[in-house]
Design a protein that fits this description.
The protein is of the alpha/beta class. The chain is built from 8 helices and 15 strands. The chain folds into 2 domains: 196 residues, 3-Layer(aba) Sandwich (Rossmann fold); 93 residues, Methionyl-tRNA Fmet Formyltransferase, Chain A, domain 2 (Roll), CATH 3.10.25.
Length: 310
Amino acid sequence: MVIVFFGTPEFAVPSLKALIASRHRVAAVVSQPDRPRGRGQHLQPTPTKAVAEASGIPVLQPTKIRDEAFLDRIRTFAPDLGVVVAFGRILPDPLIAIPRLGMINVHASILPRYRGAAPIQRAVMAGDAETGVTIMRIATELDAGATFAMRGVPIPSDATSGEMESTLAAVGAELLQPVVDALDAGRAIETPQDHATATFAPKITKEEGAIDWREPAAVIHNRVRGLQPWPLASTTLAGRRIVVRRTGVRTGAAADPGRVLSARGDELIVACGSGTALQILEIQPEGKRTMTAREFIAGRGVAEGDRFGE
């Protein structure tokens, strides 16, 4: 088949590479425009663009995907199928209708749970023990199309969203290939979703990074994991912003939430809500490198009795 691939970030790369290595032909890759990155804010190619160019595949980076000129360009490839993996924009109906067999999507959750922009982060932040990947047909309603295949993946209690993203990207690539082959052979089976049980995973905002020490330690721990690599969970100490990088849940006694209960050796323990406590394992003062709790304590960054959130 002739395939047009829509995808932008690193999450989409394993699926794109799997299609390039298959017996099908990736005629074009559509990516979001390049963005400035790093200290110099120089334009950097998106991950999928880099892979496509290395394989000699044309790359399209439209600013407007509803423009007729862009739609006409897609039509010139006469695609049999569109494959979408974390493209980052909602596709209009005229675009979805162009490929002969429509479009399919690699979605990082077990649908209908966590439809929307941030399924991995929301699953980790919720403390879920499992997530997964679903291959689904793209329909007008967001992530509501029929499903072709899905596979569950456990979420370790200390895994971050970034770590789960890498795992799920590989699983998605493995699931995608058999579905594409089945569509080509006319034997793909589509299963409608149960819309009544759908939940949504809205886009993560920067404001969600603020730690509320009145919450139980488990909730804060999941926030720290879920908001990596962006926007990161943070607090303040003596008016300075502090990023909390890695944590563990400890039993604790009733105390003022945010109060440092222990700051010696490797132990940096902070009181949380509901009589719980959080152990901070890695921490990053604003403008400095990430350091272990021991390094932070030894550098007199914090002492017992101090209070985070001030």
